[in-house]
Records
---
Amino acid sequence: MRIAIAADHHGRQLKAHLIGWLTTEGHQVDDRGAHDSEVVDYPPLCADLGRQILTGRADRGIVIGGTGGGEAIACNKIHGIRAGLCTSAYLAEISSGHNNTNVLVLGARVTTSEEAVAITERWLATAFKGGRHQLRLDQIAALERGESLA
């Protein structure tokens, strides 16, 4: 699988750990930054990663911040991106299986490297279930188009 990955200054070390693991698992990983310890803003990283997915250059993406909260908000502002902030393998399973997320968001300050691997592994391994969950994604798409659900 082609995976784009990005992290702000807080998430660089966890990003490096995940890149190593993902590569070992046979994935093609595109490191979109940050590449040094200088403080960076995460919205441009999220926008770049989202473009990689929307243009087909990546199948899925992973964004890592301090807690991941801001990154999840930024990613979900991009039309067509469904980002899930996951702090456990169970949440990753639901995120992928029910919400068909194409971006996994992790928080380096609240997730160990071992937890991040377990979360990522479950997220990648869980297929979207469709059915009633697809109806909900269709409703989310309607919200993105500015349509009323009432």
Note: The chain has a mean pLDDT of 96.
---
Amino acid sequence: MSSDVKENIKSQSTWIRGLYMLLYIVFATLADIILFAVILFQFLLQLFTGETNERLRKLGQGLSTYIYQVLQFLSFNSDYHPYPFGAWPKGEPRPSRSGEDSGKT
């Protein structure tokens, strides 16, 4: 094993990020389940009343943006720590630009 590989394996920052990644996988899974419930409920509201709930639309947007932020972090496209270590997202995600952390909403 080369010395670079040994140094990378011993890198504390990589292992800490790995722990954050495991935690965010759990959070994203919970957010997926909640978002699925919002989607189903909104569909049923639309089906039976012809309208959707504004507060649930905002929740759905927040959850969608949050999941996007988590996926950006998990795929190493961002170093930004989403909620609960960062702010809860407001609105749609910002487009990512090269060399810049995306998802900082």
Note: Residues 12-49 form the longest helix (38 residues).
